[in-house]
Amino acid sequence: MNVTLRQLRAFIAVARAGSVTEAALRLHITQSALSGLIKDLESNLGVQMLHRTTRKLQLSSAGEVFLPMAERILQDLGMALDAVSDLRELRTGTVRIAVPQVMACTVMPEIMAAFARKYPGIRVRLQDSMVESVLGRLINGDVDLAIGPERDAPANVVARTLFTLPFLAVLPPGHPLTKKQRVAWSDLVRYPVISLQGEYTQLLSAELYASPGRLEFSPTHEVAFLTTALSMVEHGLGVTTCLPYAGVLLQRQQLEFRPLVTPVLSRKFQVWLNKDRGLSPSAQEFLDFLLQHIEDHPAPEVRAFRKAR
């Protein structure tokens, strides 16, 4: 059975108009073309849909049963096409994104608010996550996009660079190192250092040991969250490190920061997407918006570092 949408539209038009002539005018086709569509529909269905007399057309019993169903099919199709059009024209949609916890409470709210002002119909669902689990959420299909520090990724994951930022020394007010415009790593490690557990400290230790000074990085404390480390710094338990995008947290807790040098170490953050699944129009627009926003609106601490450098 090969019923077409043109046949359905022709049947509905004739049934509602009660006339081939009037229905042909409404559809902007010839009467012969319209009659051919009705005959093809009846041939496909194997029943007569219309009774033809010299004076008018009437629905057969099969036609009376079929008419509301045919109208519902076209109505549902119209709604489906409208929904796709809304997605294409960015009037609606959902974007799911996994982001490390610190970035989720510093960088992302501003970007999400700016995006919502431009595209009020698109919902951005943020999953704040441990750094180690961000990429896994993308691979498992939980999100459309993921953000995190540069990592080895499967072949089907595409990475776009979001930013590359240096490490900062985070100090309590009045600390001796606040007298310096820049702080050498060799000076920082003379004080109790509070660092983050896992790859954060492991990578730092390896990079510092591989530097010309072959520095030993042995934190006094290792904690799971940067917010914990900052609170400990605030209470004089040591110093810590972070990247400039966390600057808003430093401001809230009135902590000092200085660029870390000798060596200058940095972290590249990336946006990941799964090329096997592709992106919806909404997700693609959010990705483009995110990259442009980061370029146009660096955080004050990032601008300060660039100026000092």
TrEMBL record:
List the Pfam families hit by this protein, alphabetically.
HTH_1, LysR_substrate
Organism superkingdom: Bacteria
Record's InterPro entries?
HTH-type_LysR_regulators (IPR050950), LysR_HTH_N (IPR000847), LysR_subst-bd (IPR005119), WH-like_DNA-bd_sf (IPR036388), WH_DNA-bd_sf (IPR036390)
Molecular functions per Gene Ontology: DNA binding; DNA-binding transcription factor activity
Listed under GO cellular component are: cytosol
Q: Which PROSITE patterns match?
A: HTH_LYSR
Alphabetized, the UniProt keywords read:
DNA-binding, Transcription, Transcription regulation
Domain HTH lysR-type spans what residues? 3-60
PANTHER family named among the record's database cross-references: HTH-TYPE TRANSCRIPTIONAL REGULATOR YBHD (PTHR30419), LYSR FAMILY TRANSCRIPTIONAL REGULATOR (PTHR30419:SF30)
Indicate the family of this protein. Answer: Belongs to the LysR transcriptional regulatory family.
What this protein is called in its record is DNA-binding transcriptional LysR family regulator
